[in-house]
Amino acid sequence: CASCPVGSSTGNNTGATVCETCSAGKFSNSTGSAICSACQAGSSTLNITGSDSCSLCRPGSFSSDDGSAVCSVCPGGQYSDKNGTTTCSLCAAGNYSEPNATVCNMCMPGLFSNTTGSAECTKCAAGSSTESLRGSTNCTLCTAGHFAARAGSPSCDPCAVGTSTEDKAGADKCPLCEAGFFAKDTGSSSCDSCPAGSYSDSTGSSACTVCAAGTVSAAPASVTCSLCAAGTTSPVNSTACTDCGAGSFADKAGSPECSPCAAGSYADKTGSVDCTDCVPGSYQDQTGQTVCALCAQGSYQDKKGGAVCKSCANSRTYTTYKTGSISEDACQGPLLNYTIAGEASQLTDNATVPVPESSTLVLTAVSGNWIARNPSNPYTETVLLMQGDKKTLKGPKVILEPLMTNIFCYKDTEGHGARFAGYQDKDIKGRQCESPCRNTESLPIGPHCQVQNETSPCGIPQCIWDVECSAGDGTGYRGLVNKATLEGGRSATCQRWDKDYPHAHTFHPTTYNTAKYGIGNDNTCRNPDPRNIQKPWCYTTDHWTRFGECSVPECGAAFDYFKH
Description:
Layout: E1 8-9, E2 20-21, E3 26-27, E4 37-38, E5 43-44, E6 55-56, E7 61-62, E8 72-73, E9 78-79, E10 89-90, E11 95-96, E12 105-106, E13 111-112, E14 122-123, E15 128-129, E16 140-141, E17 146-147, E18 157-158, E19 181-182, E20 192-193, E21 198-199, E22 209-210, E23 215-216, E24 226-227, E25 232-233, E26 242-243, E27 248-249, E28 259-260, E29 265-266, E30 276-277, E31 282-283, E32 293-294, E33 299-300, E34 310-311, E35 335-340, E36 343-347, E37 351-354, E38 361-367, E39 370-374, E40 377-385, E41 390-393, E42 397-402, E43 448-451, E44 454-457, E45 483-485, E46 491-493, H1 511-517, E47 537-539, E48 547-549
Antiparallel strand pairs: 1-2, 3-4, 5-6, 7-8, 9-10, 11-12, 13-14, 15-16, 17-18, 19-20, 21-22, 23-24, 25-26, 27-28, 29-30, 31-32, 33-34, 35-36, 35-38, 37-42, 38-41, 39-40, 39-42, 43-44, 45-46, 47-48
């Protein structure tokens, strides 16, 4: 009998007339084989008949049974990485494989598998991610302040400024901050309320706007700022309005600052919406003031809102007898009308008037007493004009002087104005006097009158002339200087007029001497002898010097007539 070739057998039959080819999955590797042998698990004949050997299953395939004609492909989720594999291995969680895989692949970021043997990875739901990691077995919710808008996001993105997740995790979007709230940073978990003093009027704000000057927001989370009411204001970023201080005002709501009251006006209270004009008789020359000041004596204001007071016609000779005068009529002083050759003029102070040889000088004392002097003999050739008098004189020159002392002012050193003889007929309050303004009682209040059974001062100013200086021949001086100047510049104290030591004399304090020259029971400088001396003097306490002239300044333009 002939031997069967390799790849065939007799099929274990005797008396065989032919050899049978080995079927797929079986082989014979020698001649004369009675049977074909089955391929072992993990190998196959690659679906070929008449095989003389079996081939190991390649990686990615397997055969689990003996006699396999072909190796099976590893299904998805499984793999084999060796030849001759009888079973495929499951992919671990976090991995996956497609069919015929030799290895498993890690799930990409944004994908996961939470079981073994996964053929594919699952997308993370919106609002979660794998935090950019590969091979994840689960997804992590986005933390507050972060979001994932779509499924399969590899990571969560931070919320943009002006948005937040409202303190929630797992967000798939970041809502805009509501008006009144803001988020200044990316990744904000919540929106912050605008602090008091600021606001946000739109959604999605990354910052709040501070309230402008003149506006406020009292509570957090404000969507607008409120205007401060008229009379109040506020600086920027304020939570409350404050009243304008006294001396200032705000006439409109929302004023960024209070304005100072203009000169001529005032505001004496806080929270003013406007300023009050100074009333007539008062003024204010500064801005931002709380009161107006009364016009001083010698001035007046006849209109409201005055920044300054108006001066009387002649500040040297005119004054008002009270503060707060409201009319020019309150100014009192000397006034002399004079006419030369038909040309009329007026005087309010002393002047030397030339009179042409062919003309006369017609004088009318309108206010106060006046004296006309011959320039050649000014102290001996005089004409007195009482108020209301009218006189006619000839030139060539005439000195005209108002008699100020004891007419428009009083000598306080002379019994507080005991010899005042002016024509004023109203008290310091402007009330009509019921008696002349006099001070025969030498009261400290000075010249006064009776008004409604009340003793009221007349407001007459104190004289400067013949008190702080000596006018004319010095007979009217009533100052307090009591030292005489001697030869060599020495000085000596004056002797009392009521004493005859160390020098006997005849100018004692008689009624006449006291009234005419001011001689009293004291040692002040006086001039009871104008024929021989034209300035104040006194007897001295120096045994070797009988008398001396006193260093009393001469009245002139450098001295006002009186104290306003």
